[in-house]
Amino acid sequence: MQRPGIIMGRGVFAAGLVIVLSMTVGGCGDAPPPRDETPADAPAANGAEAREADPRKAEVLSAGEYLEIPRFANADFSRGERLFLQCRACHTLGEDDPHRPTGPNLWGMWGQPAAQRDWNFSDALSNADITWTPETMDAWLARPSSFVPGNRMQFAGVRSADDRADLIAWLLVQTSDAEQP
Ligand code: HEC
Question: Residue 126: its pLDDT value, please?
Fold first, then answer.
């Protein structure tokens, strides 16, 4: 599971992982078994600078530009797809897919503020001042209840940072016009 080139790809992104590394809990449903946490995740947890970085301040790029970043370009997209099995009871991804009663469609969210769609979002998420970048998505998916207290997404979180990167890479492709690298 050592993926050194990916782990340290972007300081700010790595920082987003730090906040959540030690406090995530497992997901549920029929997704693949969780990865073991490996020492490869550890370097991000060193530096005070990383600990203080705010995922909300990350640079906003297009989905296609994010997919040029090595940690996403080199992600395991098929694992990302399988990890999405945890989400699909509540979320659709395609441009013309309807919302579900249990959760909003996610098409076109990258670079956009959270909770903008025509769906019954909580005040907590609507007022959270989040723009969806891989950094904010990583913090959200690691543990939604910590990143946005009081939100209504009934989901514990994705424990492994590598799993989150694979899932984010796959979501970048599925919810935008960007091609899989
Ligand atoms: C049990 C249903 C459920 C599951 C499972 C679930 N979500 Fe959600 N999700 C929601 C709900 C409900 C909201 C809206 C939360 C709110 O308004 O507070 C949401 C919001 C979101 C948003 C913000 C959308 C926006 O427009 O701002 C994203 C991104 C998201 N979920 C991704 C995921 C991913 C990825 C997974 C799987 C790893 C997942 N969710 C699992 C129900 C779910």
Answer: 97
Tokens of 25: 């809990």
Answer positive or negative: Cα dihedral of 124, 127, 130, 132. positive
Query: Percent of the chain scored above 70 by pLDDT?
Result: 73
Rounded to whole angstroms, how far apart are CA atoms 17 and 14?
5
Ligand 1 neighbours (beta carbon < 6 A): 86-87, 89-91, 102-104, 106, 109, 114-115, 117, 121-122, 124-125, 141, 151-155, 158
Question: Using CA atoms, how far apart are residues 114 and 137, in angstroms rounded to an integer?
Answer: 10
Length of the chain as a residue count: 181
Going by alpha carbons, the residue nearest to atom 17 of ligand 1 is 121
Residues of the chain where predicted confidence (pLDDT) is lower than 70 = 1-30, 36-52
